[in-house]
Amino acid sequence: MTTPFARYPDGIIRIDTGYWRAGFAASYLLVEGEEAVFIETGPSRAVPVLLQALAFAGVAKEQVRAILVTHVHLDHAGGAGALQRHLPNAELLVHPKGIRHLLEPAKLQAGAEAVYGAEQFETILGGITPADGQRTRAVGDGEVYLLNGRRLQFIDAPGHANHHHCIWDAQSGGIFSGDAAGISYRLFDQGEELLLMPATTPVQFDLAASHQTLDRLAALGARWNFVTHFGRIPFNPLLTDRLHRLLDQFAALSGRYVGQPEGESALQEALQQLAWQELQHNGQPLVSEAVCRDWLTMDCALNAQGLRIWRERAG
Ligand SMILES: [Zn+2]
Predict the structure, then answer these.
(1) Which of 166, 237, 265, 307 is least crowded, fewest Cβ atoms below 10 Å from its Cβ?
(2) Phi-psi region of 182 (alpha: psi -120 to 50; beta: other; left: phi over 0)
(3) Mean pLDDT by 10-residue block, N- to C-terminus, for the chain (315 residues)?
C-alpha cells in the first residue's frame, strides 16, 4: 500500500486527501519549528488522513496554528470546519469572498450537490461542518501570515473562482496555487515532462482574470508550484506559457461548441482529445488512452460545464 504522505524540503508534507481516487487531490502540512499550518483540507472525508499526517510529522494538534484554504470549493476547503474542531489553536484563514460560505455552508452544499449530484456529493465529499466563527477570518490581498517567523503571503487570484487566493512561501520558493495555476497529475509524468491543464470549473471561471492571475503569480519569481491536483511541480516560464496557451485553446473550443445541440458533451470530448494530444506531444505516453480518458473524466466534464457557464454569462 502506498503512503498518503510525501516529504518535500522546507518542512512541507504533501498529504493525499483520497478525494475521488488516490493521487487526485492534495493537502499540505507546513512545519516551521514548533508551529504548523495546513494548506487545503480536502473534503470532510479527508479529516482522518489529515490528523494521521500530524502523527506522521510528529506535530501535536495544539501546534497547528492555522488552516489556510486557497478557495472554498469542497475538494479544497470542504473539511475546514470539521478539521478545525480537532485543532484547538487553529485559525481558519480564507479569502474575503469565501468566508461566509465556510461559516454558513448550506449554500455551498446546495451548489456542490447541483454540480456533483446528491448521491456523489455524499459518497466522495461528505457533509460540511460550519467553521468556528470565533476563529475564522478573511485575509486580503498581500496580507502576510507569519508561521513562526516564516512569511506566507496571500495573493488574490481570481479566474478559476472569485474567492481564490494563492499562498506565496518565499522560503521554499513555492506557490500553493490551488486551482489557479493548473492541474497536473503525477500519473502522466514522462521523466521531466508533465501534463498540465487549466481548471475551468463552474461557476465563476473567467478567462481574462485567469490570464492576469498567471502573470501576477509569474512575477513572484517562484521555483515551485504546489498544485492541489496533485503535488509539487516546477514553476517556470515554459509552463506558464503553456497554461496561457491552453486557456486560449479551451476558450476557442468552447466558442466552437457552446450553443450547439449537445454542445457541452462535444466540448467535453474535445477537451479529452486535447489532453491526449498534449500527452503525446510530451513523448510516448506511459498510460493508455483509455486510462487517460478515465482519469480525466471528472475534470473534462467540470471544465466543459464551467466553460459553457462562462460563455453564457459573457453573452
Ligand atoms: Zn476549485
Answers:
(1) 237
(2) left
(3) 91 96 97 98 96 98 98 95 98 98 90 81 85 98 98 98 98 98 97 96 96 98 98 98 98 93 95 97 94 97 96 86
